[in-house]
Each structure stands twice: as C-alpha cells, then as structure tokens.
Amino acid sequence: MTETPKVSGLNHITLAVSDLNRSIAFYRETLGMTLRAEWPEGAYMEAGALWLCLSLDPAARTLPHPDYTHIAFDISPTTFKALCMRIEKVARSWKTNASEGGSLYFLDPDGHKLELHVGSLETRLEHYKANPMPGRIVHDR
C-alpha cells in the first residue's frame, strides 16, 4: 500500500517588505534571528527551524490587515519577558493576550501581525481538554 501524499510541515514564510534594511534590522536586532543570505531584493533569516524570506515589494503594507491572520514565534518561558520588553520598545501592539500561555502580539515595521507565544499545540490542546467549551472538539491522533 502506498502512502497518501501529504505535506510534512512548514517549509518557509515569505513576507513582503517596503524597506529591506529596516526589516533585516528588526528581525535580527529585535527578534534575534540570524541573517543567512541577502541580495538587493530580499534576505533569508533563520530562527531555529524557521526559514523566513523578506522580499522587497513596493506594494508592502504599512498598516495591519483587518483580519486575525498572523505568525506566531516560539519562545522559551525563561526569556519571554526579556524579549517582550525589547519588542515593546520598538513595535506597536495589535492585540491583548486572552489565550492560554504567554503571548505578545505586535507589528513588524510593515504592519505584519506577529506574536511571541510560550507553549505548543500540545499545551493548547491540554488546556482545551481541561477547559471544555460547547462546540469545541479536541481530536486525538
């Protein structure tokens, strides 16, 4: 029997940016990502297994989109507060945390909605199991 084709994970994320140098500085100096490659129209940043592409695009927005779409970055509970303090000095907040686990919701220089989150899918599902709500179903593997 052959295996059903399926995706195996996240490969990379590309964000359109209006000022490449400003974005490289934000992701490197504020969030601590490693710059792995750069060229006149883009850059590759790395954070753990995350491969983030910054792509220069004159159509990049500087205001956040009105929907809830965002990217959440993983952070250790021991360094969460210190990184939050660094981010809050340079970035604007877009939401107050109301979910399980520590979270900081902030905007990058082009208005992309970002989040720092302490926790994992497993800790979120355990929280949902411990705090059931009508209509919410947690599926086991």
TrEMBL record:
Domain VOC positions: 9-119
Query: InterPro entries given for it?
Result: Glyas_Bleomycin-R_OHBP_Dase, Glyas_Fos-R_dOase_dom, Glyoxalase_1_CS, GlyoxalaseI/FosfomycinResist, VOC_core
User: What are the entry keywords?
Assistant: Metal-binding, Transferase
| Signal peptide span | none
Q: Which Pfam families match?
A: Glyoxalase
Gene Ontology MF terms in the entry: transferase activity
Which superkingdom is the protein from?
Bacteria
Protein known as: Fosfomycin resistance glutathione transferase
What's the source species for this entry?
Answer: Chelativorans salis
